[in-house]
Amino acid sequence: MKRGSRAAMARATSRPRPSIPRRTLLTGAAAVALTGAAACSRVPDGDALARLTSQGTVRLGIAGEVPYGYVNEQGEFTGEAPELAKVIFKRLGIGRVQPVATDFSSLIPGLNSQQFDVVSAGMYINKDRCAQVLFADPEYQMLDAFIVRKGNPKNLHTYEDVVRSKARFATGTGYAEIAYATAAGYPEKNIVILQDQVAGLNAVESGRVDVFAGTALTVREVAKKSAKAEATQPFAAVVDGKKKIDGGGFAFRPTDGALRDAFNAEIHRMKQSGELFRILQPFGFTQAEMTTLTAKELCR
Predict the structure, then answer these.
(1) Which residues contact 125 (CB under 8 A, 6 or more apart)?
(2) Would 231 disulfide with which of 122, 220, 261, 295, CB 3.0-4.6 Å?
(3) Is-contact 250 270, C-beta < 8 A?
(4) Distance between CA atoms of residues 237 and 254, nearest Å
(5) Per-residue pLDDT for 256 more than 80?
């Protein structure tokens, strides 16, 4: 997403569908986003933190992906990034966070067109994205994993295995895993692009594809209740001969450096105190996914 990027592992913990349909959520959020964008366009450029403090509300771009940012079965706005945002922005004097849902691939365009103020979706930090937005230092690091059929009949553990076996490969819209697969030699034209991990699980279970790639955390969560599929062990993708460990963080507009810096200062305090892990742990994160990586390192 992802993680990336990239690139909703069940939008809850056992593959249930949310009580608010995604289409409804996106439609409502789109209306909010358009209204917000129109209002924001009338605000003069300047200190984003001061403006948001004055408004009392910060709009968070999310992509409906568990565990990063989503609406749960009860219609509640949650996820590791939104829960972290609620704490940090309150400390910065902004008492209310408002979700604006969109597709993952629309997060950066939506941020830069002022549909929302911050991307709060656990977005992977990489060189291409760093050319478009400012990132806070990552709140987590992440490896990849696959969803495969029970027993892993094609013995798929890395992208190189997928290439060698000519497996039918899928991943999510805008996910970093697209680039990792092509770097290993998989033809981009043959990659099946699906909406999210739930769609990936369904595609593997039905036999439409042999493998779906995503972050290790979301893959293991979505696959654990399946009778037909399983998650592989986490692994680091190899790009240009180097193992790739990703980190996910909040994204800000290039003009909002002071806001990003204030946010970053709070992130660092929470890392040192252990509060960051306490917030992320209920969403499936382990100590192995805590990180000292910086946005500067990941932007190279």
Answers:
(1) 135, 138, 246, 247, 248, 249, 295, 298, 299
(2) 220
(3) no
(4) 29
(5) yes
* Residues, the chain: 300
User: 266, 147 in Cβ contact below 8 A?
Assistant: no
Task: Write phi, then psi, for 277 (nearest 5 degrees).
Answer: -65, -40
* Torsion 41-43-47-50 (CA) sign: negative
- The pair of structure tokens assigned to 111 is 């941020």
pLDDT at 98 over 60: yes
Cα radius of gyration rounded to whole Å, the chain: 18
Distance CA 10, CA 29 (A): 20
The predicted model scores a pTM of 0.72
For the chain, give the secondary structure using H, E and C: CECEECCCCCCCCCCCCCCCCHHHHHHHHHHHHHHHHHHHCCCCCCCHHHHHHHHCEEEEEECCECCCEEECCCCCEECHHHHHHHHHHHHCCCCEEEEEECCHHHHHHHHHCCCCCEEEEEEECCHHHHCCCEECCCCEEECEEEEEECCCCCCCCCHHHHHHHCCCEEEECCCCHHHHHHHCCCCHHHCEEECCHHHHHHHHHHCCCCEEEEEHHHHHHHHCCCCCEEECCCECEEECCEEECEEEEEEECCCCHHHHHHHHHHHHHHHHHCHHHHHHHHHCCCHHHCCCCCHHHHHC
The dihedral of CA 44, 48, 54, 55: what is its sign?
Answer: positive
Q: In the β-sheet with 229-231, what is the strand arrangement from edge to edge?
A: 192-194, 169-172, 211-215, 144-149, 229-231
Q: What digits encode the pLDDT tens for the residues 200-255?
A: 999 999 999 999 999 999 898 899 989 999 999 999 999 999 999 999 999 999 99
**Residue from 191, 291, 199, 205 nearest 249 by CA:** 291
Q: Does 19 score more than 70 pLDDT?
A: no
Give 182-192 pLDDT, tens digit per residue: 999 999 999 99
